[in-house]
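// run 5 | inverse folding | seed 20
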């Protein structure tokens, strides 16, 4: 074994895909790329923990409005996602610059992103860890999927501008005997 710098540990733990955090303040939507998130609870009241930098415009907008959309892009959108993550919504209309289509959401004021595979409308469920860790717990209040989307592979941030792409799926449902209620047949 060789020592791994602590700053690299996240590269091997972070399982979730890169998502776009969509916020809106005074009718002005904004996007940011984020890969620091985790499922906290599933079922009828899904909870997602996410960490945003306090320096980001989206962080402040989310704190003010208490709501956002988490849009899940696919690999074909990777160059746009990286571009979104490398500019500020303070001086950039990211929907316009990156050629993305906003769609009115049903339960929150932030728009959905038409080009994304999945859009999750969210509201802040718990803000008790924001000041200490910038950790926000979101409740998903409405979820959307584009069933006709041909490209469904997600991208995962590995650090330093590198990403992995979903690949082969292993089907081990027949071995899921202890938690069979989680297996869809």
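// decoded
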């Amino acid at each position: 074994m060789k020592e791994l710098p602590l700053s690299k540990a996240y590269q091997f733990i972070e399982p979730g895909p890169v998502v776009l955090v969509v916020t809106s303040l005074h009718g002005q939507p904004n996007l940011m790329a984020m890969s620091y998130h985790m499922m906290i609870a599933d079922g009828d009241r899904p909870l997602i923990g996410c960490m945003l930098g306090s320096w980001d415009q989206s962080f402040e907008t989310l704190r003010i409005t208490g709501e956002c959309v988490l849009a899940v892009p696919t690999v074909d959108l990777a160059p746009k996602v990286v571009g979104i993550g490398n500019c500020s919504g303070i001086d950039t209309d990211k929907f316009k610059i990156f050629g993305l289509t906003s769609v009115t959401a049903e339960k929150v004021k932030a728009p959905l992103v038409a080009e994304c595979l999945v859009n999750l409308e969210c509201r802040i469920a718990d803000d008790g860890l924001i000041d200490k860790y910038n950790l926000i717990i979101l409740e998903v209040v409405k979820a959307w999927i584009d069933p006709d989307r041909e490209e469904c592979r997600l991208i995962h941030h590995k650090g330093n501008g590198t990403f992995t792409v979903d690949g082969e799926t292993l089907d081990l449902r027949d071995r899921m005997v202890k938690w069979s209620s989680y297996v869809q047949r």
